[in-house]
Specification:
- The complex is a heterodimer of chains A (152) and B (240).
- Chain A has 152 residues and is an alpha/beta fold.
- In chain A, 23% of the residues lie in helices and 19% in strands.
- Chain A contains four helices and seven strands; from the N terminus they run αββββααββαβ.
- Chain B has a three-stranded parallel β-sheet with strand order 1-2-3, with helices on both faces.
- In chain B, helix 4 crosses helix 6.
- The two termini of chain B are 34 Å apart.
- The chains are: A alpha/beta (152), B mainly alpha (240).
- The interface between A and B is large, with 83 and 82 residues.
């Protein structure tokens, strides 16, 4: 986002939003991209139709099976101050599953994870730690070694 | 989002974040982040543009091969071409002059507008084989009826077992926004600003959302005051 396009007070609020102050700088390397298994983790409050929608600043997460169809994906992010039109027209704007599947089919990446995950981005990140560790365990069980994080 | 990068990387999984707000990424210092200049809500950029989205993903995933970390932040060079307005786009319904309407008159105008938008919404669903309506679990007509009862001044009981009337009102408003905006993308390539200007400046729905926000915030019910904050985007709240 080019913050200069927003009203100054909104740009200031976004740029100065309190963020966790991490003391560590973890860094994991891995195989070349054609050998990677890639998952998407989104903070868009995505939920599969029929699952529990995010109702507020929930600290937990929702699973999105790779077999999910576009008609079954909803956005229940609590914030209304970001564009929804892009997602309404094309889910790949937020969850680029079709693009990942295309990259896997042509061999640019190794494979696509069986399951993807979504958190509620308006939640204090510190409260997401337990959920993130749980997701990490599930990703490892699925042999995922690369995660694309998408925010809104 | 950058915080999730920390947590997952600490657990042994390589990550790369697509970041929309660069100062937040700079502060959180994730292992890898690709800043993109797109509007909030569009981390992959333009809808229905697979080639552009592919470039964004490849730029992000390409950072996984980079050395020199920890903490790499790179910038995607191109803007979203869909931010530009489409001069050939036109709204999916005639303008409903609802400004100044209140209560039952506003409810009637809103419901008439929903009926007028229904064919475009149905076309959009068929064309895209999807809809993003569903948070309330009510069908479009029932969403309209629920909103109309609120506008008429008789807050209804929630027909959904585990949703309070206030929570259901929030989700119904989310669903009706999706209904209208999906009806608006049946042709052309409108920008989000075009669609937003139409919804908030030219529709009875927009007037209804503003009226309900105003009335809920002015009332005594703390639950309604809380949910009313989620009816109208900050950029569309009238200046006082």
């Amino acid at each position: 986002m080019r913050l200069e396009k927003l009203p100054p007070e909104m740009a200031k609020r976004l740029s100065e939003l309190e963020c966790p102050d991490f003391k560590t700088t973890p860094w994991v390397e891995g195989p070349p991209l054609p050998e990677r298994r890639v998952a998407i983790v989104s903070s868009a409050g995505l939920v599969v139709r029929g699952d529990r929608v995010f109702r507020g600043r929930d600290p937990d997460y929702r699973a999105i099976p790779g077999s999910t169809q576009a008609n079954d994906l909803l956005c229940s992010h609590i914030s209304i101050n970001f564009d929804r039109n892009g997602f309404q027209e094309d889910w790949n704007v937020v969850l680029p599953l079709d693009r990942l599947n295309e990259l896997a089919a042509e061999g640019t990446i190794g494979s696509v994870a069986a399951t993807h995950y979504s958190f509620m981005g308006a939640t204090d990140p510190v409260q997401m730690v337990d959920g993130a560790r749980e997701v990490a365990g599930k990703l490892k069980a699925d042999h995922v070694d690369a995660v694309l994080l998408t925010s809104v | 989002m950058s915080a999730l990068g920390h947590y997952l990387e600490e657990a042994g999984i390589a990550t790369v974040a697509i970041a929309l707000i660069r100062p937040q990424a700079e502060h959180t210092r994730p292992p890898r982040a690709l800043w993109v200049p797109f509007e909030l809500g569009r981390p992959l950029g333009p809808p229905s543009d697979a080639a552009f989205q592919r470039r964004v993903i490849l730029a992000a995933l390409g950072m996984l091969a980079a050395r020199g970390g920890p903490v790499l932040i790179e910038d995607f060079p191109d803007d979203d071409p869909r931010e530009a307005p489409d001069p050939a786009w036109w709204p999916p319904a005639h303008r409903h002059f609802a400004g100044g309407l209140e209560g039952a008159a506003l409810a009637d105008a809103m419901e008439a507008e929903l009926r007028e938008l229904a064919p475009a919404y149905a076309w959009s669903c068929a064309e895209r084989e999807r809809s993003t309506m569903g948070l309330s679990t009510l069908p479009p007509a029932a969403c309209g009826q629920y909103l109309a009862v609120w506008l008429r001044g008789e807050p209804p009981a929630s027909p959904i077992a585990d949703m309070s009337p206030a929570l259901l009102l929030r989700f119904v408003i989310d669903d009706l926004k999706a209904f209208a905006l999906e009806a608006g993308i049946t042709h052309g390539t409108p920008s989000s600003k075009q669609l937003g200007d139409w919804l908030w400046n030219e529709t009875a729905l927009g007037v209804a959302f503003q009226a309900l926000r105003r009335d809920c915030l002015a009332g005594d019910d703390e639950r309604l005051k809380t949910v009313a904050a989620f009816f109208v985007p900050a950029l569309r709240v009238p200046a006082v």
